């Protein structure tokens, strides 16, 4: 089997869009506009996944492990050191 040398060449990668955690732009969050997501937002995305976007759900991880992944994601961007996420947006009508 030939070795794949370039990114996004494998059959499972057809519809993948790579995320750049250094920019700290997140799509799935409860906070407004360009504000950082809450730790709970990140944890929910990790646990529930985004299968339509190629990210599997990791619901079987222990809570401590999910918190460790959230903490690791937050090391990529200086935005996490510069600003704190706001409270989740209200979902009340």
UniProtKB/TrEMBL annotation:
GO terms for molecular function: electron transfer activity; heme binding; metal ion binding. It comes from the Bacteria. The keyword Aminoacyl-tRNA synthetase does not apply. Keywords: Heme, Iron, Metal-binding. Pfam families: Cytochrom_C. Residues 10-75 form the Cytochrome c domain. The keyword Magnesium does not apply. This is Cytochrome c. It comes from Nannocystis pusilla.
């Amino acid at each position: 089997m030939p070795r794949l040398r370039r990114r996004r060449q494998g059959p499972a990668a057809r519809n993948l869009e790579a995320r750049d955690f250094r920019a700290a732009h997140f799509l799935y969050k409860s906070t407004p506009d360009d504000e950082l997501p809450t730790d709970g937002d990140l944890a929910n995305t990790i646990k529930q996944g985004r299968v339509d976007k190629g990210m599997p759900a990791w619901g079987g991880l222990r809570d401590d492990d999910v918190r460790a992944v959230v903490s690791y994601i937050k090391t990529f961007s200086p935005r996490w050191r510069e600003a704190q996420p706001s409270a989740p947006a209200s979902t009340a009508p």
